Amino acid sequence: MSSGEPWTIANVHRWTLSRETISLAYVVVAELKSSASERSC
């Protein structure tokens, strides 16, 4: 990552600590897991 990018540590922490982002991450992980299991079968 270059220092000129807007994605600073503070920004990442803000996103990570928000409940909406956490719940969204859970949904994405669940989707990835289900699609992965479908491929292996």
Summarize the structure.
It is built from two helices and no strands. It is mostly helical and 41 residues long.
Provide structural commentary.
By secondary structure, the protein is an all-alpha fold. The protein is 76% helix and 0% strand. It has helices at residues 9-17, 19-40. 0% of the residues are buried.
Write the layout of secondary structure elements.
Blueprint: H1 9-17, H2 19-40
- Binned, the helix content reads over 70%
Largest sheet: none
Distance between the termini: 37 Å
Computed CA radius of gyration, to the nearest angstrom: 15 Å
Structural class: mainly alpha
Uncertain parts:
none
Instruction: State the total count of DSSP E strands.
Output: 0
The outline comes out as: elongated
Q: Whole-number average pLDDT?
A: 79
Oligomeric grouping of the chains: single chain
Q: Compute the number of helices.
A: 2
Order of helices and strands: HH
Strand content: under 5%
Features:
41 residues; mainly alpha; 2 helices; 0% strand; elongated
